[in-house]
Here is the input.
Amino acid sequence: MRKGRDMSELDFEMRLDRMFAEPPHFPDAELFARDVETRLERGWSVRRLFIGAAGVVAALVGVGQFMGAGLFLRSASGELTAQAGAVGKAARELLSASSNFGAIPVSSEVLWMTAGLGVMALGFVITRATQEF
Amino acid sequence: MAQTRAVAGLHDVELAALAAAGERPAFGELVRRHGSAVRGLLRRMGAQPALADDIAQDAFLTAFERIAEFRGEGAFGAWVKRIAARLYVRRWRKDSRLTEEQEQDDAGHGGEVSTVARIDLDEAMQSLSDPERMCVSLCYGAGMSHAEAAETLNTPLGTVKSHVKRGMDKLRLRLAPAQGEGRDAERQGHV
Here is the structure.
């Protein structure tokens, strides 16, 4: 009796497994799939926009850094020149070093180049945004 | 369109690998294949249709985010079902519906058993109390063990086992073929 009951329980469990495994039919299944895809696309677009925006911010920060570095080098150069006159050999070495830094073209060309890259990044973001939305 | 046709013939594991590489059409195909099963499970768990669809969508989006974790050891459908079930349980618990009081109110709800005609699983599930429906769905629908269901529901294992037992007893009564219709019901049940 006990064994028979166990068997019927097992049969019922298997039947229940089959019933659960059988997906119900939804007439709007395709619509549901499209909704998920749309949300997925939207998520990716937002993500890309964030990445693009981060790129632009990074480019702007880069421009700022270059500008700041140029000003720093110029001021550093000036200070070192003044010190060089006062302390002699060591200062002269520093002056020489600072004049070497001055040789690095951190000038208007670099500034324009960086700004150009920033504009290109911004253009890329706008293009992506118009494509996505 | 051609891309959709190309992915249609691939196995779930291949589609998941493509999706992990960023191929969204491949993931779309997985949604097409398993969307109904996930939505059906959530409704059987007791979610209203709109909520079930929202959670099913969230489950698929979560699955896409975590697709690299799917290594093809189990079925993709079962994996997403578990994600969906866990999301629904979290929502359900937030609504604080898993209370002893309600459980007691619902006890005996499934006693109104009619064996006049064969009824389908979705109808039969309605006769279960919320905790019973949840436990049975997690164990049979989402393929969780009793221990996993207990962990998901943050409920003692013994409680889960007794909910499953009571739920199964009610379902057995509800799904039992009616006298004289047994053969027909059995045939339909095995289709």
In short: The radius of gyration of chain A is 34 Å. Chain A touches chain B at residues 9, 12-13, 15-20, 23-26, 29-30, 32-33, 35-37, 39-41, 43-44 (CB under 8 Å).
